[in-house]
Amino acid sequence: MQSLPSSSLSDTIATALMQRIVNGTYGRGDKLPSNAELCEEFGVSRTVVREALASLKLGGRIISRQGAGVFVSDRVQKMPAMAWPLPNIRACLEILEFRIGVEMQAAALAAQRRTPDTLQALYQAHAAFAEQDTHDPEKEALADFGFHLAIAKTAGNPRFAEFLQTTIAEICRDLHTKYTESAKHSAAYFAQTVTEHTEILAAISDGNAPLAQTRMQLHLEDGLNRYRRLLSTAR
């Protein structure tokens, strides 16, 4: 029935559910659909659904209540509109500093371990982002995250994807912040991001691990420098 390994299917479902939590489809305290409903919606087995929910529980995004079902944790909420308070900027800077080392290594390993299937998924994620110029920061942030998650999966080590999935709310808050902050120049900023993603993808596709690592570093450090400028201006 399933053409992908159960781990890949569970990752896909976990990401889809987490995106719904982040974008507010499932709000804080809301009950998620039952396992049977999720099995029917995604066309997978109960085992796959249980694995997807387990990864979200591990990240503290959902909780189980005996006899009642699975609910969104109270700590998860829809990404707020950014008013640029310093704590938000600092939080985004902190998560980006942490991401850089992880994602540089993921990009290098992706170049070394890519397969036809993972490359196809990566190209699809890139295309999905490139087509996303909607001027909707939230949608663009989620599509941007999807590209980075596809790189993590291409790395061939499930820990990279697990890291991104357990920090999706924080990462998407960072991305949402950048797209909101760049709203006045959204077309140019979006085009620049597409170009940087294209360069990373080309290096991975060519199997050039050092170049993939360097391009990922430059891509993420651009955002890091933007936050540092915002902090220095706000002081």
> Based on DSSP secondary structure assignment, what is the total number of beta strands?
2
Q: Low-confidence parts lasting 5 or more residues at pLDDT below 50?
A: 1-6, 76-86
Query: What spatial form do the alpha-carbon principal axes imply?
Result: globular
> For the report, how would you describe the main beta sheet?
2 strands, antiparallel
How many structural domains in the coordinates?
2
Predict the CATH topology of the largest domain. Answer: Four Helix Bundle (Hemerythrin (Met), subunit A)
Under CATH, the homologous superfamily of the largest domain reads GntR ligand-binding domain-like
* CATH architectural grouping of the largest domain: Up-down Bundle
- Alpha plus pi helix count: 10
Strand percentage, roughly? under 5%
CA radius of gyration: 18 Å
The N- and C-terminal alpha carbons lie at a distance of 58 Å
Structure classification: mainly alpha
Compressed to H and E, one letter per element, the order equals HHHEEHHHHHHH
Oligomer: single chain
CATH class of the largest domain: Mainly Alpha
Strand order, sheet with most strands:
1-2
* Percent range of helical residues: over 70%
- Can you give the mean pLDDT? 80
Keywords: DNA-binding, Transcription, Transcription regulation
Protein name: FadR family transcriptional regulator
GO molecular function: DNA binding; DNA-binding transcription factor activity
InterPro entries: GntR_C, TF_FadR/GntR_C, Tscrpt_reg_HTH_GntR, WH-like_DNA-bd_sf, WH_DNA-bd_sf
